[in-house]
Amino acid sequence: MTKRFTILAAAASLMLLCGAARAQQQGQDQNPPPAQDQGQQQTPDQSAPKAQGPIPAYHSPLAGAVDNEDEETTTEIKPDEHALTGAQPLGLGSANAHSYWQPHANLFVTADSNPGVATGGSSWGTWISFSGGVDVHKVSENNELEVSYLGGGMFSNTSEAGNGAVQSLEFLEKRTFHRWALTLIDGLAYLPESGAGFNGLGVPLPGGGGLGGGTLSPGQSLLVGRGQNLSNQFDAEADVFVTGRTSLTFVGGYSSLNYFDSDLLNYGSALARVGYNYLIDRKNTIGVDYEFGETNFSNFHQKLVDHEFQVAYGRRVTGRLAFQIAAGPEIATFTLPITPGSGVGSAGPTTSVYWSLNTNLQYQMRRNFFGLSYVHSVAGGSGVLAGAEEDLVSGSVTRQMTRQFSSGITGGYARDHGLAVLNPTPTGTQTFDYWYGGGNLTYPLGRTMAVTLSYQLQYQTSGTPFCVGGGACATDFWRNMISVGLDWRDRPRRF
Fold first, then answer.
1. Which domains does the chain have, with CATH numbers?
2. Which whole number is the average pLDDT over 39-59?
3. Ranges assigned E (strand) in 343-473
4. What is the pTM of this model?
5. FRET label pair with 235: which of 27, 92, 251, 289, CA 20 to 30 Å apart?
6. What does the pLDDT read at residue 386?
């Protein structure tokens, strides 16, 4: 009865939003709104599959500023100022020149071929999901603040998939002084399943999945069973401008990943990074950095320590292109054997040398956006492996339909190979391969309302059977999701 009442309440709220949207359109605002800020791309061990539901609708920060046919005025584009060796990836720039706040809400119905995220078999079920939130962007002479909050719920008609709650908060503040700048970033997500499996369920996380983004977030690159989990990442970055061409970057952060409804591996990671950046000209930058990281697993006595050295190159063409690549050796130390519940391994610590690489490309041409990224690194294992050598690939092609809504296709691949162990066990020696792909089509019903239809396929396989989520053990897993829903995003309101 409570479930029916909640669903009816959500539907009624959406009808009121539709009416408000129509009324607003009848008295359209004559001032062009500021464009939305761009969410960041997926990152190492955060999972390339962490797209937004149903399929991420890319909201370009330059919508309305570059080749926007439906607006008579344009906005000057502010060049990207992210440090090449910093916590955030390079971007195309920003057209946000004013402070504003923007409410949004959506209601989606999803047909899910495996709603319990249980390995083996397939049983179609239905999700009804709704969410609402607000984005705030405040700009002053030497300060920039971004806050995005989203809250919602998911309800299933099958007994094998319980209901779930969604809470997400993204925070970024940057203060610029005469010779240095300080940036604070925090991202928190409380989800009913792994971020890798949260695709296609119609509850878009704020900020495109992370205002902070970067290479420092907790990892969820594998499909696991349903159950509430909490991930959080905090980073503090200080950039010291030594000369007009050179700068030093210092980053410190801590991330954590905790599963509340399963016996997966919880862990916390601390890191420190120092980098040097040199501006060759206004488009090209080179840099070097060193990063120290330490990951501790709470379920058993295991610690993973790694040292990473990278040489980096970046190229930025404001409003058109952002490209960066960094590569170098990564030295990891851990205890053998890596076996949950066995305590400290009898063979003691061992050290292995790996290679690391991360590259990211963003390109915008009129209303079309292209994104591609690749990462190879040592990662936390997503709660399934006690440390892993990981490859992440993701790509997207997006068409900006209006300032608020877009359509596109996306796809990605993740490979997690468990770190070597002295006494092989099913947990320690597994290799997981995960593919995903799909697309969404958005039909605007005005400037603030749109209908979205999407499809997504998820497939995961392993060399040995994996048993997560309480389902039957299997070596492969398939999932199809078809979603349709209403998305309301009000025009930005200046303050």
1. 42-494 (2.40.160)
2. 37
3. 348-365, 368-379, 388-400, 406-418, 431-444, 449-466
4. 0.79
5. 92
6. 80
